[in-house]
């Protein structure tokens, strides 16, 4: 297995202001910058290359999410990356409309994989085990995690067919029985594998794990552990998951989406606080006032999640997520703020969470 610890330690040692200057200047270089940002620069009332501090990224305003739904994602990649671009384009879940699209260069995929390798080892999952990756597939980057487990953790990985958009479509249309039938279809696929194959660990979403635990509790209890990733899990859900697995089993619940991942920290206050920290410095998170995104709330207060992506090859400042969370003080343990107890900002029929 590859040792990724030196990489992680190098990233965590980065000064966020210096990293901001590095990424902004790369994307706004007149000769080799990204086409999207060079065009945006002509519409701004400041020169982005004059930015020297992370806090100054607020000058860009909120990232126009609509642009990510319609533009060619190659426009976000600096011209310094050789053309033509080859590889996968990844999409968001499309909860609030048409999906957003981003292109991951090879270094970005390697960074994501390195964090995953580092984290699952720290969490206590054993290498060389068999996993069931019951997560969104197709254009969803969460499904790419199966290859990370194989390449970096010596795993053997099983999978299922999983299209989360179909459930969202059924819920929007008020077709609750059809949505439930599709969820049952996913649970049946998982059950078949868990009954017949030597699977140690499960990767899935909190909602689908909840459905599996309700339908086939004996299969959940036979697992050695579970890693749940998505945008919604409450402390009560986590307690029920641990009860279903068994108190001596591994259970990790993280808050993730297409744009950036987090690392789950140990729960606090008997599970009432479920903190996570982002994959710094490429991903940072803030918690802001939903009525005034420029105001960061106090530690321990709820607010809207604000996410900033700063890869060498992808720059997305000030994404206002559709999620509510508690601002978490990491103290000296992490170089930036964390979030805790993430949940949807608003749940309506037009923006259903479905099986995420």
From TrEMBL:
Gene3D superfamilies for the chain: N-terminal domain of ligase-like
Protein name: Arylcarboxylate reductase
SUPFAM superfamilies according to UniProt: Acetyl-CoA synthetase-like
Species lineage: Bacteria, Bacillati, Actinomycetota, Actinomycetes, Kitasatosporales
